[in-house]
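Practice problem. Given the sequence and the SMILES for zinc ion, write out the predicted structure.
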Amino acid sequence: MSSPLQREDVARVARLARLTLTEAELDLFTSQLGQVLEHANDMSALNLDDVEPTAHPFGLINVFRRDVVRPSLDRDVLLSQAPDAESGRFAVPRILGEAP
Amino acid sequence: MKSAQTIANDVRDGSSSAVAELQRSLARIAERNDELNVFLYVDVEGATAAASAIDERRSRGEDVGPLAGVPIALKDNLCQIGIPTTCSSKILEGWRPPYSATIVDRLIAAGAVPVGKTNLDEFAMGSSTENSAFGPTRNPLDPSRVPGGSSGGSAAAVAADMTSISIGSDTGGSIRQPAALCGLVGMKPTYGLVSRYGLIAFSSSLDQIGPFAKTVGDAALLLEVIAGHDPLDATSLPEPAPSLVAHVNDGMAGKRVGLVRELYEGADESVVASVRAAAEALREAGCEIVELSIPELRLGLSAYYLIAPAEASSNLARYDGVRFGRRVDGEDVTAMMEATRTAGFGAEVKRRIMLGTYALSAGYYDAYYGQALKVRTLTIQAFARAYAQVDLLLGATTPGVAFKFGEKSNDPMAMYLNDVFTIPTNLAGDPAVSVPFGRGEENLPIGVQLLGPPRSEAQLFAAARVLEIADGRA
Amino acid sequence: MTTLTNGWEIVVGLEVHTELLTHSKLFCGCENHFGSEPNTNVCPVCLGLPGSLPVLNEQAVELAMRIGMALHCTIAPSTFHRKNYFYPDQSKDYQISQYDLPINSNGYLDLPDGSRVGIERAHMEEDTGKTTHLGGSGRLAGADRSLVDYNRCGVPLVEIVSAPDIRSSAQARAYAAELRGILIATGASDGRMEEGSMRIDANVSVRQANAPYGTRCEIKNLNSLRSLQRAIDYEALRQVELLEEGGTVRQETRHWDEDRGETSTLRVKEDAEDYRYFRDPDLVDLAPSQQWQDAVRAALPAMPAERRAALIATITQPSDAQRDAIEVVIDLGLEHYVHSAVAAGADAATAISRVANEIAADLEHVANLSPAAFSATVLMEQSGALSATQAKTVLGELLEHGGDNPQAIAAAKGFEQLSADSLGATVASLIDAHPDEWGRYREGDDKLAQFFIGQVMKSTKGQANGKAVIAELQARRQGRSQD
Ligand SMILES: [Mg+2]
Ligand SMILES: [Zn+2]
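Answer key:
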């Protein structure tokens, strides 16, 4: 079975993941990711309609913290780690669109 | 090199001091770190202050803890307040976390002295430590070979006698595989036994912190210190740390151990021979050995290489140049994020982010990620069936001994196949330990793997101890 | 409200985000507080620092359940997913939200006009941070730099998604107002739209009656109930005009501009985001026990509909003005004053009016006014011991300074009741002074009573009680005719 992965798929995924690929990387990754997906055909081929998915190894439920305020971090320390900051806030270049 | 248990005893009874033990450790690091590239950062000042404080407290008669004055190496994906933490990635270069991981606090409370941060495959993605942005770590037993990965630095620190114990993390074998290749004991505990708070996530549902040591006793001691419920980790098991050291010498008489074909078939001859010899050693110690086949385990690799990248693609989204770490400027915020991530991540990280993004994306989720979660269920059920018959399982840790640099680094699939025996327990959330047993080509160590049901750490250490004795190491 | 012609019908579904009134954030211990200095309520968790992990706030779950119960939802085991998209106000570049298994689903909300709007779901999620735009006009468009404050990032939200059951802008407004009242009544939210603690997005489409749904547009930036109503009217008309000209509606997100009174394209849905939802592996499933649910349900206070009905029942055939006053009382949660006064024997209509007007006008001092003092004041007014004007003054004093003795305040203000003798003398002298008016009143022209009340008020400087004056006039009319 051949891999379903095309060059355009890799380009689309790179955009979604906020990565820029060169043409050469695009080719390389298309073939490498294709190999992994091909290996996964052993799994995709199975009929697992009756099997429940496991997102988590153990079925823990209802883990909570109590609604109690704990001290926050020192703002100066946080902002000293920021690539750019201004007026107590994290600064970024212009934003082109509203949040989805 | 003294064991951690010996160091702690010596410091506690005053026959040595934390400062002296630290100096021995720092001297060893100074001697070999340039060659081996084990530590990315050595906190001479902080460690010295911590060691002095322990000595001072001891001189006042205080109890200085079960790891009193024991120098320890931390994989550089663990946060320690104020100490540079990179995940071996350029994207985090210069970042100093404003908080510490829960286990770092526990180690310090137990008297351990963190000496520094060790190299790893970038974001723990790899099996050779060749994927570090700061150069590969060399195997102290043969510097032309890899130490394994992703916790290669932490394994090498112990193998090179820089510290007696170290901390790694294991997502698909990242403790057990380097332990095997460096001749150490390494355990991946039950998922949730050790808090992940402060462990920089690769794949949240698979990641688990665990110990490296030269002896089974040290590994048990270290795990006992770091295990136990943490309210800061919602996936942490609700119970306190189990008693481990006390059971190391319980022996294996009357236990049933399953020798699992899928966990050694395809491995090098010398590895298969070691596994069979280990089975024989367990038989001699009073175990019944049962030959088993668990075909579902063969699907583990495929499931793992979809689940782990999928979670990673989301976990690694936050490296966007806004709040911390490195930024590469761009015209607008999207261009800045893209430039930052493109320059900041290495090839393997990009590969996995893209693979995971693809597996989760519209139209592919069911075929890849969704299907992988179902295979995970099959894996759990298959292990549960096996543990209904036997107490523990036995197999190989890796297909071969430590390989040479570059041997697999250009072929991701060949590298991924290196994890084929370790991955199933991560999928199931079960514990497993790698313990040195026998030697392979060039007299390099071979690790055999013992696997158990959830919360079977004490029994796994007891079994590992039987093999340790049989291997003539203690 | 605009009415569409040519058989067009508006179809609206509303998505309401409400911040929950917890002490701390949804997944960390940072304070949930509006108006702090930027980035002072942040920690490794809500700032998405590497290695940090979320742990769910129990009280947020309880408040979400209260909302679900008040909206007649089914409470079910639920999970948390990650909604993946890059945006700088979101510290992890994914939002933790509920996806295919929300805590609350399949409920409804009954409006005061008797109509019912379905509630598809009311799920929990985390809020984002806030951006400030520098350069240009201070708005996103044209800015050259933005600043991010993560104080709001991680604040617990419940998103309430209605079914597309709403058929007019007025109904949408009524739904939002009733929902707001419910959120406040549950104690889950303060309902402050101006502070953004309740935010509304409207999905608007039009269709010919009973035709399949048309393409919808999502309208954002609706900061008041008035905006909501205006925006829906504008958008529906825009779509109708477009369709009548032979065009098609494009599925998109639109921005409401309150000043210009129009919507404009924000984002076209064609370049739909691929959010790659998956279960958040850092969080475990949520399955509130029956015992917990029962306790929450038992402690749930009465909702506005029930409270409204209780007040309406105190008045026979309430007028529109009285219904409006009742809304004010419910909205402000002040009906205990009314119930206390009624229990003390006061007239409900007077009590409701005093609450909806005098108390509502001075809410910041409401804590000073005890229900007992209020009831006593209303009773004094009712008995004629105080005129309406005097009663209002006494209430003002009680609100301003507190106290439990309206009689003393009335005395101190010189609001002594005109004695019956004194009132009788005043009325008698006015009858003498205005024989023509008295004659017409005697002949049965009751309108003249108002004339005499005005004269009495004038000569007593407002100290007389109108009802007492009428009683005096009637007594004199009857008395004379018996002569
Ligand atoms: Mg939402
Ligand atoms: Zn926080």
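Check your answer against the key. Chain C has a mean pLDDT of 92.
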